[in-house]
Specification:
Length: 321
């Protein structure tokens, strides 16, 4: 993925040698990152400036905020590229009845509008997955998974399930993957601007705090152990190209299993391992907390829109055997 702010114009250089030009208002240079070609296409992105928030990481990856992008331009580009998305979500035990229908219905309204999307629902009760009216180019696949007695194990074992379904199915049909917790509701556009080779999400509770408050795993015996990091990422949302997501889930699963063999469990389970992986393998795109917000935090001036919000948590009822 290659991108940088370009005053005046946005150029798409397509591998069939056609060139598309889109006139944009002049904007401030924001940041740049050069990595491997994405489908052999060099992309130039022009972002509208935000001066009240951090818009680039130290390694020059974009941090996506409202007013930093033109959604129509992103959608045009990804349609031209043939981008398509797999959405994975786990609805196990009481989580299925409590959250899945609302999650899927809200996703149909707001997630990746205009692009082909396949929902991959993992559950212990496939027959209870609700019927959802899907838009054209949208489909749903259901996979049965084991229900573990502890929610922590369900959370951690999803890494293997995601990797397995990428290998057996997703890589043959979709270019990108996004992985979500089910206890969330889409409330605004969560679109193609979020797509990238490796995509991480800033945790709503930590993005404005000093690093000393980040809850990385502090146990040197764990594979998730970290003294410091770049940001604190939320495991409720992560994504990227199918290759990148498969690499992440494989690595996290291997670390989880090594910890298990040593009778160690990371502080925040799969989220701790995800943070360690993303510290060692920097994401090419970072999503602001707009993309997963907890309304109980209250008003924040830098959160101008909410695209995905936490649903009410009922852990006392949902996580009991």
């Amino acid at each position: 993925e290659t991108w940088w702010g370009v005053p005046g114009f946005l150029f798409f250089y397509i591998n069939d040698m056609h060139t598309f030009q889109f006139q944009l208002p002049t904007s401030h240079f924001l940041c740049s990152k050069t990595t491997a070609k994405f489908l052999e296409i060099i992309l130039f992105f022009c972002f509208r400036s935000r001066h009240d928030v951090q818009t680039c990481t130290s390694w020059k990856a974009p941090i996506m905020w409202e007013r930093m992008f033109d959604p129509d331009l992103y959608d045009q580009m990804h349609k031209k590229l043939g981008s398509s998305v797999a959405l994975t979500v786990f609805a196990v035990g009481r989580y299925l009845d409590a959250y899945l229908k609302t999650f899927l219905n809200s996703s149909e309204r707001h997630f990746m509008p205009g692009l082909p999307v396949t929902y991959y629902v993992f559950t212990d009760f496939p027959e209870k997955v609700p019927d959802i009216r899907l838009a054209p180019q949208r489909s749903l696949k259901v996979f049965k998974v084991e229900r573990y007695s502890r929610w922590q194990d369900i959370s951690m074992m999803r890494m293997k399930a995601i990797s397995d379904v990428i290998e057996s199915d997703i890589r043959h049909h979709r270019t990108h993957v996004f992985c979500f917790d089910v206890d969330q509701v889409f409330t605004g556009r969560f679109g193609s601007e979020a797509l990238g080779d490796s995509v991480a999400l800033l945790h709503a509770y930590y993005y404005h705090l000093p690093k000393t408050f980040y809850t990385y795993d502090s146990n040197p015996k764990s594979k998730a152990y970290m003294k410091t990091g770049d940001f604190y990422y939320h495991a409720a949302v992560f994504g990227g190209s199918w290759k990148s997501v498969q690499a992440l889930t494989d690595a996290c699963y291997q670390s989880i299993m090594e910890d298990k063999q040593n009778n160690v469990e990371a502080l925040w389970h799969d989220e701790s391992h995800l943070n360690k992986y993303l510290w060692l393998h920097k994401p090419s795109r970072v999503l602001s907390p707009e993309y997963c917000w907890d309304t109980s935090i209250g008003y924040r001036g830098d959160i101008r829109v909410t695209r995905l919000v936490w649903a009410p948590k009922h852990y006392d009822k949902l996580r009991t055997p």
